[in-house]
Amino acid sequence: MISSQMRKAFSQVRIKNFINGEFVESSATKTFRMLDPSNGECTGEVPVSGPEEFNEAVAHAKEAFRTWKDTPIMVRQRYLFRLHGLIMDHEAEFVEHMTREHGKTNADARGDLQRGLEVLEHACSMSTITMGET
Q: Which of 33, 74, 76, 105 is 20 to 30 A (C-alpha) from 122?
């Protein structure tokens, strides 16, 4: 369970943009407030990024795809296995955030997380499913 000190820190979160592999502060002055539906408490803010930041993110994503598209499936699979492990290692934090952001029960949030992990597991099996036929 997350401590009251950590819970207070969550209420001060301002989400950053993820551009070119880095989290960067948005230049946006307008934000959306994230509210805990169980009590209306503000849990953080998300910037309303403008067209410039959006276009920058898209340009970097297009550039990254140029090399990613040639990445062998077994290398991609290793990235997905690592992601799976990281999610498992931080399950409690994910569940806490989901309950605060969506008003879900812990059991419902854990179920959603499990379904997401199952999608990752299926994606990791693609190297044996495709067998070079597609």
A: 105
Contact predicate 19/53, CB 8 Å: yes
Nearest to 38 by CA among 101, 93, 97, 91: 101
Domain boundaries, the chain: 1-70, 72-134
Query: What are the φ/ψ torsions at residue 120 (nearest 5 degrees)?
Result: -60, -45
pLDDT tens-digit series, residues 70-103? 999 889 999 999 999 999 999 999 999 888 888 8
State pTM to two decimals: 0.73
CA distances to 50, 78, 129 from 132, in Å? 42, 19, 9
Q: Are 12 and 44 in contact (CB under 8 A)?
A: yes
User: First CA to last CA across the chain, in angstroms?
Assistant: 45
